[in-house]
Amino acid sequence: MAGLEVLYTCVAGSLTSPQDALVCFVHWEMIKSGYRCIGSGDEPCSGDRKSELLPADWSSNKELYSLRYEAVDSDAKVLLKAIAVDSALIFNLMNCSTQQVADLTVNVKDHVNADHLDTFDRVFINGESLSEKVKAQLLPPREKLTEKKAGRKSLREEEDEAEGRRRREEHDPLHIPSRHPSTGTQHPWPDTVVPPFAAGGADLDPFGSRGGGGMIVDPLRSGRPRSGFDPSSGIPDILPPGAVPPGARFDPFGPVGRHRPGPDPGHLPPPDYDDMFM
User: Fold this and answer.
1) Residue 31 domain-assigned?
2) How far apart are CA 107 and CA 208, in angstroms?
3) pLDDT at 209
4) Given Cys at both, which of 104, 110, 192, 260 links 91, Cβ 3.0 to 4.6 Å?
5) Across the chain, what does the average pLDDT equal?
């Protein structure tokens, strides 16, 4: 509890009740957790400033203590109230931005010796246990109170992590690229999303001339290299010139060429055997 003795000595002149000592203890736990007191009361004042000390009028009301705090590294503000109920002191800590509230009830006699308020070494009882209660039940985790500055820091960390993952995936030979990359790089996989009113498009556009898949495989438009054969010029002894319109789909129905080899009878029966019935 380093620093608590210095604080306690500074406010020793205004300590008149065991509740005062308990509020002083909780105030120091707030300071250690990264907050600074900016004043007393519920409403902010023009002269508010961050300080580790307690305000001058912090113990003016023995029934209700009200202190305002602000985080050191952000704009997060909290309001601490302590209400005296019989022999207990009920602490209430509210986040001014999210309105989240945490409560802690402390039996004053269990942790403060009322007979030794002027002696720091003997005033607190089970100080370590009280400190653990304050941290666990009253003080919120810092990430819940982090606002603008810490939020921007968190965003930068997420961006750095995403960039690091992307670089590792690029160097991973077993990585399968994303189907929807966010970097703008085009992938070779076709988009399988079909518009809802595109049903029957393959029938209306069989060759896929408008960018669709089509329903007919045209060997002349398949994108593969083909010979310079033009069916519109005609096929000798088979089709006259002009029989096939230019650009029309044409499936050859026989070998192209004037001299086509005929069947060799020797290919069907056994070699040198002329009797076809044997």
Assistant:
1) yes
2) 82
3) 59
4) 104
5) 77
Residue 117 lies in a domain: yes
Residue 173 lies in a domain: no
Question: What is the Cα–Cα distance from 195 to 40, expressed in whole angstroms?
Answer: 63
Closest CA to 39 of 30, 28, 31, 50: 50
Domain, as residue range, for 97? 4-145
With beta carbons less than 8 A apart as the criterion, state whether 91 and 81 touch: yes
Q: What would the pLDDT profile of 108-141 be if each residue is shown by its tens digit?
A: 999 999 999 989 999 999 999 999 999 999 987 6
Number of domains the chain contains: 1
Domain assignment of residue 85, yes or no: yes
What secondary structure, in 3-state letters, does the chain show? CCCHHHHHHHCHHHCCCHHHHHHHHHHHHHHHCCEEEEEECCCCCCCCCCECCCCCCCCCCCCEEEEEEEECCCCCEEEEEEEEECCEEEEEEEECCCCCEEEEEEEHHHHECHHHCCCHHHHECCHHHHHHHHHHHHCCCHHHHCCHHHHHHHHHHHHHHHHHHHHHHHCCCCCCCCCCCCCCCCCCCCCCCCCCCCCCHHHHCCCCCCCCCCCCCCCCCCCCCCCCCCHHHCECCCECCCCCCCCCCCCCCCCCCCCCCCCCHHHCCCCCCCCCCC
Would the pLDDT of 244 be above 90? no
pLDDT, tens digit, 9 for 90 and up, residues 6-43:
999 999 888 999 999 999 999 999 999 999 999 999 88
Check the CA dihedral 42-44-49-55 and report its sign.
negative
Q: Output the pTM of the full model.
A: 0.52
Handedness of CA 31, 35, 38, 40 (dihedral sign): negative
Token pair in block for residue 171:
């160097």
